[in-house]
Hints:
Elements: H1 2-22, E1 26-28, H2 29-38, H3 40-43, H4 47-57, E2 60-65, E3 68-73, H5 84-87, H6 95-111, E4 117-121, H7 128-143, E5 150-158, E6 190-194, H8 208-221, H9 230-234, H10 239-251, H11 256-260, E7 263-268, E8 278-281, E9 290-293, H12 305-308, E10 313-316, H13 318-321, E11 326-329, H14 342-349, E12 351-353, E13 358-360, E14 364-369, H15 371-378, H16 383-387, E15 390-394, H17 401-416, H18 424-436, H19 447-455, H20 458-467, H21 476-484, H22 486-490, H23 507-517, H24 528-539, H25 560-583, H26 588-607, E16 611-612, E17 619-620, H27 624-634, H28 640-657, H29 665-668, H30 670-700, H31 708-725, H32 729-742
Parallel strand pairs: 4-14, 4-15, 8-11, 11-14
Antiparallel strand pairs: 1-7, 2-3, 5-6, 5-7, 9-10, 12-13, 16-17
Helix pairs in contact: 4-6, 4-7, 17-18, 17-23, 18-23, 18-24, 18-25, 19-21, 23-24, 24-25, 25-31, 25-32, 26-28, 26-30, 27-30, 30-31, 30-32
Amino acid sequence: MPGLVLDELAALSEAVQRRFADERRVLSFGEYLELFATAPVRHARPAARYVRDMLEHFGREVLERPSGAVTRHRLFDLEFLEDREGRRRALAGHEQVQAELGRVLENFAREGRANRVVLLHGPNGSAKSTLVHALMCGLEHYSTLDEGALYRFHWVFPRREGGRGTIGFQGDARPPAEGTSFAHLPDDELDARLFIETRDHPLFLLPEPERAALLARLFAAAGAAEPPSDYVLRGSLSHKNRQIFDALLSSHGGSLAAVLRHVRVERYFISRRYRVGAVTLGPELGVDAGERQLTSDRSLGALPASLQSLSLFEAHGELVDAAGGLLEFSDLLKRPLDAFKYLQITAETGEVQLETQNLSTNCVMLASGNELHLAAFREHHEFESFRGRLELIPVPYLLRYPDEQRIYDAQVAPQVGGHVAPHATELAAQFAVLTRLRRPDPERYSGPLREAVESLTAVEKLDLYGTGAVPARLGVEAQKALRANVAALLHETDGATEYEGMTGASPREMRSVLLDAAQDPGHEGLSPFAVLAELDRLCARRGEYAWLGREVEEGGYHDHELFRRELRERLLDLLEDELRVATELVDEARYEELLERYLAHVSAWLSGEKLRHPLTGRLEDPDPALLAEVERLLGVTADARSWRDALLGRVAAWAIEHPGAPLDRRAAFADLLRQLREGAFRERRPAVARACRDLVRLVREAGAGLDDARRAEADRLLGRLCAEFGYVAATAADAAQALVQQRFRDLDG
């Protein structure tokens, strides 16, 4: 066994060494130049292009939304993370924010430098930090790939024969073979290494005119569409590097080749943990870069005397650590204005002034701030001077409840520690979004659209944004106009000081609601009924949350009591639907077929034509009994002709909206199908009520009082609820009992 373990260790060591070599982790300057020539565009990128390319590397997908097609950057799904826990922090929704960020990064890439600070602003908990987190995760992963490989250089000085001395300079140092580099010397043959914290590009070691000529040739040979950026064309060594370079050049009699022998090029990887190319800075005071003297450090006594005589200063701080990547200023606006004034010049010039040098910066700077601090900032007399150096991107709360639900399912449900009942997180998401919605301004619209907008309730707007459902109560033209203008409503407040999604319940508050609901002793796991109870308790704390104090507006906007009543009724409706299906007392396909037959008979009746019987093949008159039965189930009270004329009008409207497409009865007549099911269900409610009572007895009373046949039926019902709808026995019994108490109380069964 010990021998086997040692063999495995040796194999592992060999694999790591092989991977190290394959990744080109350590190179001489000449080897790096050869590598650079294979992909000059890739290796010459400043941070602005690097971050842009990283975003594009993960690709995009087009998603259909009620407001139209939107483009989502796959980066924000975090599917590349191996850590399952890490993937739970994927960004839900916010495709508009992603598009804005992509636009800004593209502009930075075209300009060759990130010359403005990107300020993500929005209410607390709107996912600003989640967005930045995804970008940093993407940068970490991208830097491990060949297409995202990054390189920096350090200085190395070989050991001389017989002891320490001038190492690498003229004198009695051991002369290496002509033309060889010191880059690959093992540590025991080195007397000193000087690490370069600023991560200067290795090409900065070449004189600017010759560098420009080389880049022109290499970019032309590669057929590059983009010219080299000013960053790599005119970038210069940091102050410390320039001092070392000049000292070496002087020592070697002006030989650039001899100087470059001291250069070790190393691949590095972006890391949040180690603050390499991905740094988050909290709202501390002071400038985020500084310098300290190196030559007083006794550990550097092995350096050549020529270097020891120099006053070498090492730059440090967040702006230095973030070089080549991303620097986040978390809650930037919490800082006093004087504490970040330097960012004006830094962003515009790409330099920060230190005591002995102007330090070049090469990073994308993102900042975050909440709306309260931004409002105060806007009132400051110097805001306008800052405005031109900022890219403002609003990050509102989500307005689509399916997106909001994704957050709870990913981040809260795993912490519950038990079963999450159907509709629990959906109900919480719907409540959260309802608190964020604003009443639309009908004055902005005209015609049927104005009519629709004027009467649009908060709950109807919730469904419009979430699923594209339009109120069945509206006329055909108003429905059509509303369906075609979801985007107009969604963007109605864009650019306004108080935009839709700026206020309301935050995901953090709803997280507490869900976790508290999961501890309700009256329910197993996370129950939607426990969520409703917690929402009641939340809304009782009016003094703690500003959004609870908003004045109720026409249409039920900001009416939190109404929201809870509506959501309770919607929950019971859903449970009824599920129980109805699970009992198999209602055949869903039958009602689709019935609607199809009804529409065919209506068309024939209005045109005075006959219909061919499906079995006999004979032409017959429309069936008045069929027409009457369906209209009874639909609860039609209007004149038969006008009602039937309106139906065919809807068919014509569908044909106009979907030219060349066959009629989709499920979509065009969803309301009629629902009414047919409900009409049939009314006649079968006593049977469904009995099935619910039997299910409760089966789960809560071990089937007491049930004969074998009813027990078997209750068992089948429970099985279908679990298999098709995601219940467990306890939550299925909760649902059945709620219906018995609140919907079926007066029904025998």
